[in-house]
Amino acid sequence: MTLALQIILVITSVLMTVFVLLHKGKGGGLSSLFGGGVQSNLSGSTVVEKNLDRYTVVMGIIWITCIIALNLLQAFGA
């Protein structure tokens, strides 16, 4: 159980890092390398950005849940 949670934690950490770096910032960031900088700034938030937001939030929830579960397993010695 602990090993599975640790693996999930590492995978979600890497995915969250990638998702955060793909977000469109003021300067474009890494998203401009993959074609995100071509879009106009006047168009607002795109469907891709909204989906990226959702994926980032889901990864964050899974990440926090794994941290809490690992801490509880360590505290209660299961």
From TrEMBL:
Main localization, broad class: membrane
Domain of life: Bacteria
Compartment(s): Cell membrane
Protein keywords: Cell membrane, Membrane, Protein transport, Translocation, Transmembrane, Transmembrane helix, Transport
GO cellular-component term (any): plasma membrane
Xref: InterPro entries: SecG
GO molecular-function terms, A-Z: protein-transporting ATPase activity
Keyword S-adenosyl-L-methionine attached: no
Transmembrane segments: 6-22, 55-76
Membrane topology: Multi-pass membrane protein
Listed GO biological process terms: intracellular protein transmembrane transport; protein secretion; protein transport by the Sec complex
Pfam assignment, any one: SecG
Physiological role: Involved in protein export. Participates in an early event of protein translocation.
Family affiliation: Belongs to the SecG family.
Protein name, as recorded: Protein-export membrane protein SecG
Upper classification of the organism: Bacteria, Bacillati, Actinomycetota, Actinomycetes, Mycobacteriales
